[in-house]
Amino acid sequence: xxxxxxxxxxxxxSGLVTWLPRIIPFIFVKNIQLPxxxxxxxxxxxxxxxxxxxxxxxxxxxxxxxxxLNLPYVFAFIPTVLIAVWTKSLFLTVALGxxxxxxxxxxx
Length: 108
Known about the structure:
Blueprint (H helix, E strand, L loop, with lengths): L2 H27 L6 H8 L1 H14 E3 L5 E3 L1 H17 L2 H18 L1
Antiparallel strand pairs: 1-2
Helix pairs in contact: 4-5
């Protein structure tokens, strides 16, 4: 087996290991009618995940135990949240967040 074919199979295997855990739950619940309480709860999962990802970057811990704001992320967060509330568009929100973070990193 050459390095190229070995690398190919590593990439294929990594893709399967990443893809399968995301697809298997949909296969199991495809023919099951979930209770309304579970469906309502599932609507909050994307918001919770996104909040966890965002808020962990907004705050940083310095040398001491004090927690401070990560100002570049805060400056990118404010217009991103405003456009998200105003447009309710995931594409525009993500695009503005990426562009605003790029501009802030270019300036600082």
